[in-house]
Amino acid sequence: MSEHHLLLCFLFFLSFSQILLSSCFSFSNSTKICPHGQSLALLHLKKSLSIKKSHSRNCRFLSYPKTEHWKEGSDCCSWDGVSCDLVTGHVIELDLSCSWLSGTIHSNSALFRFPHLQRLNLAFNDFSGSSVSAGFGRFSSLTHLNLSESGFSGLISPEISHLSNLVSLDLSRNDEAEFSQLGFDSLVQNLTKLQKLRLRGISISSVFPNSLLNRSSLISLDLSFCGLYGRFPDKDIHLPKLELLSLRENNKLDGNFPRFSENNSLIYLHLSFTNFNGELPASIGNLKSLQTLDLFGCPFSGSIPSSISNLKSLQILFLSDCQFLGSIPASLENLTQITSLILFGNHFSGKIPNVFYNLRNLISLDLSGNNFRGQIPPSIGNLTNLYELDFSDNQLEGAIPSSVYGFSSLCYVRLWDNLFNGTIPSWLYTLPSLVELDLSHNKFTSHIGEFQFDSLEKIDLSMNELHGSIPTSIFELVNLSSLYLSSNNLSGVLETSKFEKLINLTNLDLSNNMLSLTMSVHSNSLLPNIQTLDLSHNNISGMFSWNVGKDTLSQLNLSYNSISGFEMHPWSSMWTLDLHSNLLQGPLPTPPNSIVFFLVSHNKLSGEISPLICKASSMGVLDLSHNNLSGMLPHCLGNFSNDLFVLNLRRNQFHGIIPQTFLKGNSFRTLDFNSNQLEGLVPRSLIICKELEVLNLGNNKINDTFPHWLGALPKLQVLVLRFNHFHGRIGFPKIKSPFMSLRIIDLGHNEFEGNLPEIYLRSLKAIMNIDEGNMTRKYMGDDNYQDSVMVTIKGLEIEFVKILNTFTTIDFSSNKFQGVIPECIGNLNSLRGLNLSHNYLTGYIPLSFKNLKILESLDLSSNKLSGRIPQELTSLMFLEVLNLSQNHLIGFIPQGSQFQTFGNDSYYGNPGLCGFPLSNRCTTDEIPYPSQEIEAKFESGFDWKITLMGYGCGLVIGLSLGCLIFVSGKPEWLVWIIDKNIHKIVRNKRSTRGRGARIS
User: What tens digit of pLDDT does each residue of 97-151 get?
Assistant: First the structure.
C-alpha cells in the first residue's frame, strides 16, 4: 500500500474518532441522575436501620457500613451499594450485603419503593424480627435476590413465587424461616428461569420436588438443612449445567446414590447426614468433573467401586461415618488431585494400601475408626504437603516408619488406640509445624525423646509403656496447652519450678506413674491458666501446698498417693477435688464454695464436720467415707444443696441422729450412713427423695420398725438395714406394689419377727424376668461417681466397689422370722443370692426354688426346715454356694450338676440326711423321695394317683383305699403303710436290675 493511501486512512480515523467522542460526550450529558423520590426512599431506608459492626460478623467478604456516606443532596446513583439505569436513572441494583445493618424490614418499608430493581442483596446483616414479606414479590424485574444469613424468620410469603424473572434466589441460613407447602410448590412451579436456588436452613418439610430435576438451566441447587423427607427420585438425572447439588442434613430423605448421565458438569455433591443408602454404583465414574464428594454420615455400604479412579478432578473425598467395608481400592492412587481423603468411622479392613506415591497434593488423611491391620505403608513418606494424619482407633501394629523426611507442614498426628510398639521415631520430635501429637493407647517403650520445636499445643502419650523421666524439652514448649502422660512407667522427682514457662498449660495429666513431687518456694505463681491437674496414682508424699491456677483450676485429683497434709487454697473455680486414698490426718479440709465433687474417703481424717461445708451450695458428691471422723452430723447436710446426689459417710464414728430434714425437689441418688453409731428413727422426710436409688443404713444403732413407707420411692434399688435394732413385724404395705425397683435388700441381723413378708416379695418386679441378653450391662451411678455396697453372699461378707445393674440379692438372715418359706420366692427368677439363715422358719424347702435358674448362692441354714431336699434343685446350674446346715432335713441328698461340688459343711447338723458328700451312707431303703409336690397332695386329701398304690392288690382294693381316705381325711396309719410300701416297690424293681446295689 502506498504512503498516500496510508495518509488518507489516518485522516479518516481521526475524523471518525472525533465524531465518536462527541457522541459519547453528548450521551454522558444526557444521562439521568437518581430520581428525587428514589433518593428519599433510600434515605428513609437508611434512617430505619441501625449500624453496628457485629451485625455482619459472619461475612466472608469485606464488610463496612455502606449507608454511612449516603447524604441528602447528592446523586444516589453514586452511593455505595447503589447502581442505576444509565438512561432512566432508576435504581436497578441494591447491594447492601455485609453493611453492618440491623433492624426490622416491615411490609411498608421504603425498601419496596424501587419497582425497577433487578438485583437485591441484603446478605450478612441482622434483620431479626423481619419476614420475607409480600413486599418482595413486587419486584417484577428482579433477576437476583440474596437474603442469606440475615436473620429473617417466620413464614415466607407465597408472593415470592411471582418473581418469574428470577435467575438466582438465595435465602440460605435464615434458620427460623419456613415455606408453607403451597408456597414452596408455587415457587418451584413458577420460577422456571432459575439457575441458582439456595435455601439452606429454610424449613420446607416436603418431599423432594421431582420437577427440579427437569430444569436443564439449573447450575446450583442447595436444599440442605430443609427437612426434606421421602425418597429421592430413582432415575437418571439430565442436568447438563448442574455444578452443585447439596442435600445434606435432611436425615429423613433416603434413596440410592443419584444417577447422573455421562453428560454432566457436576463439581460439588453433598449428601452428608441424609439417609441415602445402598452401594455406590460403578456409574459414579461418570462424574469426571467432580471435585468434592461428601457422603459423611450416610448409611452407604459395600465396598468402594474401582471406577472411583475415573474422578481425576476429585480434590475432597468425605466417606466418613458410613458402613463401607472391605479394603481400600488400589485405584485410589490415580486421584492425583486429591487434597482431603477422609474415610474415618467405617468397617474398612485389611492393610492400608501402598497407594500414596502419586498423591503429593494430599493435605488431610484420616483413616481412623476402622479395622485396618498391618503396618503403615512406606509410601506415606511421599506426602510432603500433609497437614493432618489420623490413623487412630485401628489395629495397626509394628513400628512407625523411621525413614520419613520433609513433613514441614504436618500439624496434627493422631495414631492413638492401635498396637504400635517400639520406640517413638525421631522424626516426630523434629516436625517444625507440629501442633498436636497423640500416640496414646499403644505399646511404645523406651524413653520420651527431646522435642526440637515449640509449636506443640497438645501432647498425649498416655497408656503406653514409656519409662524414664519427663524430658526437659517439654518444659520449654511455651505454646503447650494440654499434656497427657498418664499410665506409663515414668519416674523421677518432678520439681514444680520446671513448669515456669508453661503459662498456657490448661490440662496436665501425669497420673498412674511413679513420680514424686517437690514444691519450690515460688511455685504459687506457676501454671496461671491450669484448669485440670491429675497427679493421682503416683509416689507423692508429705504436705501438698501447691497453689496453682488460683482463678482457673477446676479439677484437682491427688488420689492414691501418700499425701499426709493438704493446704486448701481459695480456688474460685474449683468444682472437683479428689483426695481419696491418701494418708491425710487432722481435721477435714473445708472445700471452696464452688465445689461440686468433694472426695476425701480412705484417709485418716478426724474431728467433726464443720457446718461451713454447707456453704458449698452447688455440691453434687460428698464422700467422706472410711475416715475417723466423729461427732454429730450437721443438721444442714440434708438440705444445703438441691444438687447433692451422693452423700457417703460410711465407716466413720458419727453418732447422734441422721439429719431429719431433706429439701423438697432434692437430687439425692445415694445416701450411705453405714458403719457409724447413728441412732434414733429413720427420717420420715426421706419420702420426698424421689430420685433415691441407694439407701444404706447398715451397721448403726437405729431403733425403728420396718420403714414400709420407703416402698413409695419409685427408683429405690438398694436398701440395706442390716445390723441395727429394727424390730417388729414387717406387716402389710400401705400402697399397691411397693418397692417395684428394689433388687438388693438386706434386713439381716435385726429383730424382725413374724412371717416372711410375702406381699412385699410378690412386688419385687425388678428381680423378675430380667432379659440380660437385651440389657446393657452397666454399673450403678455415672462417670463421675459409682455406688458400692457391702453384702453377705456365698457365705462371705463382700464389698462390691461397683454395683452391676443385673446383681440381685435378698438377705433376711439373723432375725426372728417364722413360718414357712413363701412359694412366691420362686417367681423371683432373676435372683442371684438368697439368705434366710438364722431364723425360725419351718416347713419344706419350696419346690418353686427350681425356677431360680440363675441363683448363685442359697443359705437356709440354722432354721427348723424339715422334709427332703427337692431333687429339682439340681437344675440350678449356676449355684455355687449352698448352705442347708442346722435344720431337720431328712433323706437322700440330690446328686448331679452343682450338687457334686458341695461339701459336708452344706449339710451338717441334719442327722436325717444321707449320701454324698456325707459319711452317712444311704441304705437300700433310703432312696430319692418323691418331690414335696406329692407330699403336699397327700396332705390335702384325695389324689387320683393313689390308685397306682394298689398295684400289688388290684383295682378294687385301690378304689376302696381311695374311698376310705376320702371319708376319713388322712389316717396316719395308712400314710405310714403307703410310705413303707413305696420303698418296697421301688426296691423290688431295682433288684431285678442288680441285687445288692447301693446308692451313694
Answer: 999 999 999 989 999 999 999 999 999 999 999 999 999 999 999 999 999 999 9
Residues in contact with 476: Cβ distance below 8 Å, sequence separation at least 6, in sequence order: 451, 454, 501
The whole-angstrom separation of Cα 914 and Cα 894 is 10
425 to 262, 362, 606: CA distances (angstroms): 48, 22, 51
d(CA 911, CA 884): 12
| CA neighbours closer than 13 Å in the CB half-sphere of residue 766 | 22
- Average pLDDT over every residue of 581-590: 96
Cβ atoms 589, 563 nearer than 8 A? no
CA distances from 213 to 208, 245, 277, 282, 525 (A): 10, 11, 20, 22, 66
pTM: 0.80
Gap between the terminal Cα atoms of the chain: 137
The gap from C-alpha 179 to its chain's centroid, in whole angstroms, comes to 35
Per DSSP, 469 falls in state: P
Tell me the three state secondary structure of residue 727: strand
C-alpha cell at 458: 497438645
Grid coordinates belonging to 379: 509410601
Can you tell me the distance from the alpha carbon of 438 to that of 420, in angstroms, rounded to the nearest whole number?
12
Contact 830, 854 (CB under 8 A): yes
pLDDT at 405 over 80: no
Give me the pLDDT at residue 584, please.
97
pLDDT, tens digit, for every residue of 306-321?
A: 999 999 999 999 999 9
Residues 370/351, Cβ–Cβ less than 8 Å: no
- β-sheet with 888-892: strand ranges across: 727-729, 751-755, 816-820, 840-843, 864-867, 888-892, 912-914
